[in-house]
């Protein structure tokens, strides 16, 4: 699923009203291990993708099946700056 976040704060998601909000139920980490591979970065990573998607839907954050659909939503936001986040 694709979501739209703030550029300056990737842990804030845009809701259907166009407001960026934090969803405290989404757990973030900077290092994650998956299938024996350790992934780390300077930007936070979603710790549990399925839990995060569920929490985002409960917080009324729209998710999109494709990046082009997410782009269409992003174009409706009052602020011109946003970024994509794919959670799978």
Structural class: alpha+beta
Distance between the termini: 6 Å
Percent in strands: 35-45%
Largest sheet: 2 strands, antiparallel
Low-confidence stretches: none
Q: Any idea what the shape is?
A: globular
Could you spell the SSE succession in H and E letters? EEEEEHHE
Helix content: 10-25%
Q: Give the beta-strand count.
A: 6
Could you say how many structural domains there are in total? 1
Tally of alpha and pi helices = 2
Strand order of the largest sheet: 1-6
Instruction: Give the averaged pLDDT, no decimals.
Output: 94
Question: Radius of gyration over alpha carbons?
Answer: 13 Å
Written account of the structure:
- The protein has one domain (about 1-85).
- The protein contains 2 helices and 6 strands, in the order βββββααβ.
- The protein is globular, with a radius of gyration of 13 Å.
- The protein has helices spanning about 50-60, 65-75; strands spanning about 1-5, 10-15, 20, 30-35, 35-45, 85.
- Helix content is about 20%, strand content about 35%.
- The strands form 3 sheets. A two-stranded antiparallel ribbon has the order 1-6. A two-stranded antiparallel ribbon has the order 2-3.
- The model has no long low-confidence stretch (mean pLDDT about 95).
